[in-house]
């Protein structure tokens, strides 16, 4: 049912000549979208420079946009660096090309396959736990980045001798860091041909990555045989006409899947540890569940369904600190929202950050309350009030993978250690993803062995 606000359109804050609302957006995007939400109407108009823009403030409209992105709305151009790294993978492909690639990639991340990856997730997390000692001071973000990087390399490319984890990880680190810096700064506005020092570092890293992936693919083709990793499934995939993916398409999809399973999950886990440290009752409940379900052993895929509180911690983290904090589409001819026409070329923005904290949809929206995700919670969570993985036909293919990974890692490490971040407040800062504004340092506190 459409709400009363869905058809209402109102003007947002006044902008300045030529730049529109760009200065307000650039100064503090999170506060800007929160202010647009407070306008109350289903659609709020504003200006991204000279480009007309709308912010959607109603779950019905958000769902409508997410469902229409393959018909009357198109994906935006996120700039040279994004295109250079991601290529023509399923995330950026369009039309028939997107439908073909989705049909080839989707089977690789279905629940049956994710089950096979769960052991790798747990093994990598256990290796991390075994490196830690009680009372050690660690950088959580660095630890989670290294951990999810190992998981991504092993689940995507495998563990054979041809795979050099250090080379892939180092190249990806440089590429992701420079891409985020370009998005936050003026780089996104520069022409493709312009080469800054950052762009040169980025290009060198991606070119090295491409050579490494090409070497791994060639070695895998020569060796033959089936393996339990995403690359093997992509090499074996064929479309309805019996046509396999080309080497370039395999490169684009493996890089896409690596990115989907690495930085976003590392960031979610970093925020989860921080929020748990600041909410002792939630951390105590986590310890209780891990003792009850695992009894000191390493979790497997079959434990996922029983780790309800652990999953609730992850979902509540994604509500308060959504890694993907905005989503953008561009209206094409004939686009409508709420029955009202949207002029072609209009940028249409939705923000998980703003919607996930809307007091009209979420009681005590600023509070970390994992219990709101448990069965029998008093406040129902309705469609499109929570969308950290997008939605519609363009929903994140790796959403199931990411949830299982976050739960398995949190359970494996959380059954062994508390991570105490202290009282210092860590604020979010935006780039392509929602990151902590500084190092997230913590002291490791060993968890007593469960009573038998």
Notable characteristics:
2 domains, six-stranded mixed beta sheet, alpha+beta, single chain, Cytochrome p450, iron ion binding, metal-binding, heme, about 450 residues, 16 helices, 13 strands, three-stranded antiparallel beta sheet
Q: Helical proportion?
A: 40-55%
Q: Report the portion of residues in β strands.
A: 5-15%
Instruction: List segments where confidence is low: pLDDT < 50 over at least 5 consecutive residues.
Output: none
Distance between the termini: 51 Å
Overall mean pLDDT score? 88
How many beta-strand segments?
13
SSE series? EHHEEHEHHHEHHHHHHHHEEEEHHEEEE
The CATH superfamily of the largest domain turns out to be Cytochrome P450
Tell me the domain tally: 2
What is the CATH topology descriptor of the largest domain? Cytochrome p450
Which CATH architecture of the largest domain is right? Orthogonal Bundle
Number of alpha- plus pi-helical segments: 16
Could you give the order of strands across the largest sheet? 1-2-3-9-6-4
Largest sheet, in brief, is: 6 strands, mixed
> In angstroms, what is the radius of gyration?
22 Å
**Computed structural class:** alpha+beta
Shape assignment: globular
CATH class of the largest domain: Mainly Alpha
